[in-house]
Structures are given as structure tokens and as C-alpha cells.
Amino acid sequence: ALFPHMTIAENLAFPLEVRKMGKSEREEKVRRALDMVQMGKFGGRRPAQLSGGQQQRVALARALVFEPELVLMDEPLGALDKQLREHMQFEIKRIADGLGITVVYVTHDQTEALTMSDRVAVFNDGVIQQLAPPDKLYEEPENSFVAQFIGENNTLEGVVKEIRNGVALVELDDGELIDCKPVNVSRPGERTRVSIRPERVEMNKARLQPGAHTLKAEVLEFIYMGDIFRTRLRVAGNDEFVVKTRNAPDQRRMQPGEHIEIGWLPTDCRALDA
Fold first, then answer.
1. H or E element: which one contains 121?
2. Distances (CA, A) of 102 to 5, 58, 184, 259
3. CA-CA distance, 4 to 257, in Å (whole number)?
4. Cα(61)–Cα(45) distance, rounded to whole angstroms?
5. Is 0.85 surpassed by the pTM of this model?
6. What is the pLDDT of residue 161?
7. Burial code of 72-110, b = ≥16 C-beta within 10 A, e = fewer?
8. 3-state class (DSSP) for residue 207
9. How far is CA 234 from the centre of its chain?
10. What mean pLDDT is reported for the chain?
């Protein structure tokens, strides 16, 4: 929605002119806003001379240049490449914090939501499923939808056998018994979907903490992702059970077909709605 008859600098200066801002102050704010989106050299061009991604960055700079109290952003970084997108996420957060403005940010990118937000609202069919700070949302999901929607998540199906002293004993569909934290299950006999984050699962028995629960697993796939290893396992009848481990010098690379034992703490295992 840039004005096609104006240069990029004139586009950014327009909301400042409307607010009767002096020329020198206008020019300084425009320069800073263009540098913020890495478009400092493009001030003299017109929108038609820019790519779609560049136009999007200019539109973003124009929305922020007059330092509004409240900004609504609806997927503003969608057309940007990954590296620039990540840079802009931190820039928008830094600017918002620095100026003290509120940003209501709509996105389907869960990582973007966790990276940028003080609070995140997860919607499903127009209903808020959970409203919480990013760490609480990720580590303490209140239902199966939130656990599955935010980040990568392992699930195992089962039935609650008993709940005692804040711990739920769950019988998985393959007959294994595990201890979990009961979140939205309340009585024996209820079906439940157990949730465990991939990074909370340990594949090295020597590193298992006291009280950890262990299960047998078969390695199905190993994927090298640079900073992390992603290992897909068959666990309790689930062929899509994923473990993420840091690419450390002492971290062994698993081979498909290996049979191993994995474990996690009961506090990291949440019994959610089925």
C-alpha cells in the first residue's frame, strides 16, 4: 500500500508531514527507519522499482516511522527470506521496546510468535485456547491443541489408571505404564494424550536424572541439521517420536535400526485431553 507517485523517502516522510514535523527531524527519522529495514540506499527510488519483499520492508518502516502507540501487524514479514526475516523480528522487538509501543502481531509462524512476544494468544476457530508468556505457553500447554500447535511435540495415546499426589499413572496403548503430570485429566478411565517435548527426551542412559522414566525405542531416521541432530524413533507404537539433541562433540549419531533406551522426567510429561 505504498504511494506509487512518491519516492521511498517521500513515502516514509508522509506520515511525519501530516503531523507537522520539521524538515530536519523528518529527514533524520526517515534515514533511521530506512536503515532499520536495510533500505538506506533506496530512498530515491519509487515503489515500482522495488521487489515485493523490498516494498514490504518499506511499508513496515512507514508504519513505525512516526512512533505510534499501537501497531497492528498482520504477517508483515511473509515475503522476506529467512535471514532477513529473523533480523527483522529482533529489530521490530527492539524498536517496540525502545519506543514503548504496543504491537499486536498476527502470525502463523510459531517460532516468530515465541521470539517476539511478551504474551501469546493461541486461537482455534476464533476461540483463545491459551494466553500466556512464551515460555509458559511452550513448557506448560493447557490442552492438546496448544501442545501440538506450538513447537514440535511428541504424543503418546493412553488411559489414566490413577491420579495420586499430583501424579497421573497412564497406561499407554501398547501396555507400558508411565508417570505424568495431570493437566486436564481428572479421573481414572479417561483417555489421554501424553505430551513430551523432543528436547526433554534423553537418549544417553548415563545422563538420565534420578526418577526418570525409561522406554525402549528403535531408531528409524537420523537427520543432521547443523546445530542440532533430529532422530526419529519408534516408541510405544508411535513411529513419529522425535528427539532433538545438541550437536556436541560427545553426542553420538544414532543409526537406523539401533535399539536404545530413552528417558524423561515425569514433570516433563503432561497428560492432556485426548
1. strand 120-124
2. 31, 20, 33, 51
3. 60
4. 15
5. no
6. 94
7. ebeebbeebeeebbebbbebbbebbeeeeeebebebeeb
8. helix
9. 25
10. 90
